[in-house]
From TrEMBL:
Signal peptide: none annotated. Residues 87-190 form the 3CxxC-type domain. The keyword Metal-binding applies. Keywords: Metal-binding, Zinc, Zinc-finger. One of its GO terms (molecular function) is zinc ion binding. Transmembrane segments: none annotated. It comes from the Eukaryota. This is 3CxxC-type domain-containing protein. Residues 30-49 are annotated as: Disordered.
Length: 204
């Protein structure tokens, strides 16, 4: 684990208070090309994907952003589309391991790609899975609602000129352990910023 919030690192009791939101097939069906609602169920079956579209989390962003947003899966980096990566807090539960004690782990570095078109207020996020140490299969992340909203809305506000640039690391974040780059799909894809300091002005 790496870069977990200070309050998260303090105690397991606070860990249990996190509101994890996982992708499900039913939420994908509702999403379409625009947005969908998240829920707290785990994806079923062994075929976890390497990366998950964030459209099922879009309604949460709408509740906290001070402007209209539309989710667009087709966004890619261009002159009109800003791009960055963020590390969000997530919990992984391997759906491939079928033992009585399924593999579960928490990471402060869930690689999250973010695109935003300033002219149309369209946005897109992509969350990357991590491999289970037991079976070496990918597990999809369940993100912490508050942390996800904080990271994404803060970046969007910065791009819209509603927030001033901040120092790379918030004082609320501490290094709690090494990030396993060999099991992070974002690292394997070359987009995870675990080795680079995050900043609201980071467009690379």
């Amino acid at each position: 684990m790496h870069g977990l919030p200070q309050y998260f690192a303090h105690s397991m009791k606070q860990h249990l208070q996190y509101r994890w939101i996982h992708f499900t097939a039913s939420s994908s069906a509702k999403a379409g090309s625009e947005s969908s609602r998240g829920n707290n169920s785990r994806p079923q079956g062994p075929s976890a994907r390497e990366e998950v579209e964030g459209d099922y989390l879009h309604d949460i962003l709408l509740q906290h952003a001070s402007y209209e947003l539309t989710y667009d899966r087709s966004l890619v980096k261009s002159k009109m589309v800003r791009y960055s990566t963020r590390s969000t807090v997530g919990k992984f539960v391997c759906s491939t391991c079928t033992t009585r004690n399924p593999m579960m782990w928490v990471s402060g570095v869930v690689c999250t790609e973010l695109w935003f078109c300033l002219g149309t207020n369209r946005c897109r996020t992509l969350l990357h899975s991590q491999k289970c140490k037991r079976c070496n299969q990918y597990a999809e992340p369940g993100v912490d609602r508050g942390n996800y909203v904080h990271k994404v809305v803060r970046a969007l506000d910065r791009w819209k000129g509603l927030r001033k640039p901040e120092r790379p690391f918030s004082r609320n974040y501490v290094r709690t352990g090494p990030h396993d780059s060999g099991r992070c799909h974002g690292c394997l894809k070359g987009v995870c910023n675990v080795n680079a300091r995050e900043s609201d002005g980071n467009d690379d």
